[in-house]
Inverse folding.
């Protein structure tokens, strides 16, 4: 398995929470997702759906910057292309999102 390194900030922060882990395996996308953190946390005033929108948008920006830094691409152009692809995939999925929900505490 080819895992990505854990960011230094996450290692240093005792309160760090892993929210999303994604693999391509057996020719499909597989994910482990921390669902319920915002819905179940009474001290946070953001709903789960909005929080995930922010997480996914921040992830898109990180990918754009990585493509700029790693391959010399224009970060804004990359972000536009990611956004277009994201919206197209939401409207007309190329595969089903199925699986199981395992609630662990």
């Amino acid at each position: 398995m080819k895992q990505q390194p854990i960011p230094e900030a996450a290692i240093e922060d005792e309160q760090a929470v892993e929210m999303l882990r994604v693999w391509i395996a057996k020719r499909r996308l597989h994910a482990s997702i921390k669902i319920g953190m915002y819905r179940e946390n009474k001290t946070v005033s953001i709903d789960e759906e909005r929080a995930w929108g922010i997480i996914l948008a921040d992830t898109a920006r990180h990918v754009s910057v990585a493509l700029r830094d790693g391959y010399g691409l224009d970060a804004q152009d990359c972000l536009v292309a990611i956004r277009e692809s994201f919206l197209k995939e939401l409207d007309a999925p190329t595969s089903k999102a199925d699986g199981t929900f395992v609630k662990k505490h």
